Amino acid sequence: MMKAGEGYRRSARITLRPPREARFAEQPSLLLELSTGGARVEHRERVMVSSRSVLRLDGFNLSAVVRFSTALPTLTGIVYHTGVEFLNVPPAESAMIEELLHDEVQRQVGEWEANLNGIHLPRLASGPQSSVQQRYLWLHLTDQGWVRTETSDPNQPLDGIAVFADEPVESIALLCKTYQAADGRSRDYLRACATLAIMERRRR
Hints:
Layout: E1 14-24, E2 27-34, E3 38-43, E4 52-57, E5 60-74, E6 77-86, H1 91-116, E7 136-142, E8 145-151, E9 160-164, H2 169-181, H3 184-202
């Protein structure tokens, strides 16, 4: 059984594409990111940091504590993006989370490889989408290190790389490390891959 604090932000979060319908704090929610130790959800009603509730998804319930909650504007009002840590996850639920994450990673890797090779896979049926306007991060590599700029522009900067603003911080850190160590040709390749990933997600 995983105990509180053991997995929170120590295991990589996966962005679910599309998000999954769920319930958190007894309100309809979207599950945006998931790891074995926690999750990020979108919902309409405010929750308090350090409060405890239950995340209900696909037949299993996970007790969780709120670690942060951010109010974000949308065209129809305010929504909250809330990060939670799972508490005392039973072995059966832990196995279900790991299976869900494994399947999601395999699917996303398959789509990425297909896009890279010019293969168009059948598109999944449209699922729920976040109400927040899509934002991007321009990651600029300068002589002083990395500079991040949030923007609504999905194009790639000349001095770095662009990704979705909701990418997990672990993925962004790995991408920056890989880009910084790469030569010019490899950096162009990474930018091309990032462009394909953005184009594919915007089509959904």
